[in-house]
Amino acid sequence: MLSRFGKARTAFPGGCNIGKRPVDMHIKALEEMGAKIEIDGYNIIARVKGKLQGKEITFGATENVIMAATFAEGVTTINNAATEPEVLDLIDFLKKMGADIEIDNTKVIITGVEALNGCVHKIIPDRIEAGTYALAAIITGGKLKLKGINLSDIRCITNELETIGAMVELYDGGIVISRKNGSIKSANVATDPYPNFPSDMQPQLMSAMCIADGISVIEENIFENRFTHAGELRKLSS
């Protein structure tokens, strides 16, 4: 919005109370590119005269910087860029529309363009949603076919599921998840940034661990309040 109209206004993020969600990296990145940022109560107001300027960014906010840099003047380089499947899918989408973006390991290089074109793009399946359904199958002892999912996109999840006793099978068009014979196995799992086990899958995994054999340990390294669901599981005699 800022790149296109020169001004944008948005509220601070809210959502579930799992921990702090600072936006300082997003603000700093836009300021580096020439935007003037004003905080008005619960709102963030950004303005830019003319175009945003291409810069070298070495901290977070990968997707926002990519979108802002698409219409910026010059070249923007993002070092240590996020490489989640969703980020790569966004890049693929923008390139189909005419954006000039190159990827070199964890470096993303964007050369600003004057305009984008329309395109047809199919968004990749949500890996957290897929992992949630997969854990439901493991907990219930069922068998689930996930159509259209790319195994490489959810390896960070299925690796842990196999550890606790899941069977992951490939088929033409997706994967099949089921529980191997016997009960769910205990495990020690830590959440960390991609490509490690995601924090967004931690509550679902804890639910499975409640009926697993033995003692499991879950270490949360992303959000400081991500264990609030434990109290609800205790109400179910966990």
Automatic annotation (TrEMBL):
Keywords: Cell cycle, Cell division, Cell shape, Cell wall biogenesis/degradation, Cytoplasm, Peptidoglycan synthesis, Transferase. Pfam families: EPSP_synthase. It is found in: Cytoplasm. SUPFAM superfamilies: EPT/RTPC-like. It comes from the Eukaryota. GO terms for molecular function: UDP-N-acetylglucosamine 1-carboxyvinyltransferase activity. GO terms for cellular component: cytoplasm. Pathway: Cell wall biogenesis; peptidoglycan biosynthesis. Its EC number is 2.5.1.7. GO terms for biological process: cell division; cell wall organization; regulation of cell shape. This is UDP-N-acetylglucosamine 1-carboxyvinyltransferase. It comes from Glossina morsitans morsitans.
